[in-house]
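Problem 12. The chain below contains 375 residues. Write out its predicted structure in token notation.
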Amino acid sequence: MKKYLILSALFALSLLRAEFPIGFYNVIPPNEQHFKAVKDCGGNYVHAYYNPYNDSEDMQRKIQRQLDLAQEHGLKVNFRLVHPSILKEPDYMERTRKVILKYKDHPALGLWYIYDEPRDDDTRKKLRQIYRMLKQLTPDIPVWMCVNWHKGFEKFTDCSDVVMLDTYPVQDQEFPNAPLNNFATFIWQGKAMRKPIVPVAQIFSYKTHPEEIEKFFKNSDPAKCRYPNATEIRYFNFATMAMDIAGIFYYSYHQIMIDNQKRYVREVLQPEIFELSEFARTVEGMQFIPHTGTPGTTGLPKYLCASWTGKDGVYVILVNNSKETLSDDFKLKARLPAGKLIPWGKTRQTDAESTGTNIKLAELTPWEVMIWKHN
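Solution.
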């Protein structure tokens, strides 16, 4: 059985390589406007916290509408499979099986989202049973699970094919003081799980979550909390891209809409996320090389460097993991082809060069991302 699960998971993961998943949590209600906004950002996945065990006509209509509308827009659905309440029922396996069989053949079903932030051992035991059933019934559909940081989060690696990791660092701090490296560190540590990792990046303000500020961040003022700015979103995107992630999701679309932040979507999220989608398409199938250490094997370095090599050339990312400006020759642990580095995408115009063992660059500003094509 163990060998079967490994082979089945590998097959499912190979399907993801055809398209880098970029998705949004809680895109509700499912309508033309919201799904078009996801597509305009370069996204290809939508998610909602629907409960498929709720037999009400309204709930079943929303679930079907989500799938059908996603198909119309060329999107895939991150389908929330296990609602916490169902695990308390003695027939949870049979009821989950019925949901799987009901939706498994819909063309917009992209992946099973098996659970959201599990913690206890009993939940893990039951999720492992459901995971095995999924691999038997739908071996070609990847199984994902989201885990937030807590002691022992690593123990849930055997419940899914892909692990999503979330932690949200931007509260009320003025830029550049939010500890963005906490997010990057969690993803870096998660790579030690030896599973494909998908970060869940913050696109909300804690002013819509005052209860969490009171519970977890008592030194923050909910009224002064803000949304991540463009530099911070770009850092979330490319610091993790430099760790060879398997996709990225953003939490959450609904929070933005209830706060009437359409301008934020248009002016901040769309340009930043679309750039990531363009880069992911550009380097698809290329050889990934980490130049500042292998993710998950050491502590997060002060700066990250990674490259992608293919027939079209070499693409390079250099990322500042701190709120301080870095001014130095940036030393590399793995060699990079020597030559001039040409800015790509939204990268600022500046002289940069690879010597093979170093990148010569005047400075990296706080949390800055530099993306180049090697000339």
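Discussion. The chain has ten helices and 16 strands. Students who got a different answer should revisit the alignment rule from Section 12.3.
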